[in-house]
Amino acid sequence: MHSNHTLLISISILFILSHSSFSSPLSPLFYSLSCPKTEFLVRASIRSAAGDDPSLPGKLLRLLFHDCIVQGCDASVLVAGNGTERSDPANRSLGGFEVLESTKRLLDLFCPGVVSCADVLVLAARDAVALAGGPSVEVPLGRRDGRVSLESNVRPNMVDTSFSLDEMAKLFSSKGLTMDDLVALSGAHTIGSAHCSSFSERFEQDPNGNLVPVDGSLEENYAMELIQKCPANANPSVTVNDDPVTPTLFDNQYYINLLNRTGLFLSDSILLKDPRTREKVESFAKNQDEFFASWAESFVKLTSIGVKTGGEGEIRSSCSSLNG
């Protein structure tokens, strides 16, 4: 069963790579001559770092999405400084920057100035998913790093957890992603954690200052658990697992949670309520292999958004700053 599952994913990726115009400048073999140990070194670095920080896979996956969805997968979210993407409030809670920086330094010991930070981020997120029990996806490589990182680019492109399905679908469509991609990529919420503020619209304060649920789509006991973890006076740094059942395992539990009305975000619950997405949620909840195959396809599409190649970008010396 495992070999068939792996074969299915490989066939799916080969189909995408051979039929997709937007990924044509990229190739899984891009570094085969210039830095043949690239994938091995990234995988080893991520495995080592995740041993010290079990929350790392969720952080890297979120970091990748926040990079690609804004102005393409060009590592612009990694640039530090005032007025950069990283300084926007939506990105201030991102993590995993230091691991990517150390991975880039490791690669530059073997192949100085060859591997882009954009490719490091894609490979790191890919390997983080596999490390957490998800599928290992063959991804095309050859991205270059963007030379622009502006805070003003973030909000017009970022998905908010309070978005309606139409709002999410419109944004995804503008990036070349379909409704099915939206459902599959939302499965990233099977790992990771979120601050209380990211689902606060599902509650309101009563006259005594206590939080009460206002969202009927949230299962009652789960709603009370969230209130206990995130009371009205909760510390802003408090976080809650996206998936209350298997928070560190990349599996299809996210979709099972949706059926049980224990999806953390409003944008999660909407996928179950809307007939345009409900069938896919139910299907993924029943069949993890189907989810993994769809995830692999959608992940390749996500990581191919707005890539820069050739003279369109640069290979940064440090992921956190643009070259001189």
Automatic annotation (TrEMBL):
This is Peroxidase. GO terms for molecular function: peroxidase activity. Pfam families: peroxidase. Its cofactor is Ca(2+); heme b. It is found in: Secreted. It catalyses: 2 a phenolic donor + H2O2 = 2 a phenolic radical donor + 2 H2O. Removal of H(2)O(2), oxidation of toxic reductants, biosynthesis and degradation of lignin, suberization, auxin catabolism, response to environmental stresses such as wounding, pathogen attack and oxidative stress. The keyword Cell cycle does not apply. Gene3D superfamilies: 1.10.520.10, Peroxidase, domain 2. The gene is PER18. The keyword Metal-binding applies. Residues 1-23 form the signal peptide. Binds 2 calcium ions per subunit. Its main location: secreted. Belongs to the peroxidase family. Ascorbate peroxidase subfamily. Belongs to the peroxidase family. Classical plant (class III) peroxidase subfamily. Its EC number is 1.11.1.7. Residues 25-323 form the Plant heme peroxidase family profile domain. SUPFAM superfamilies: Heme-dependent peroxidases.
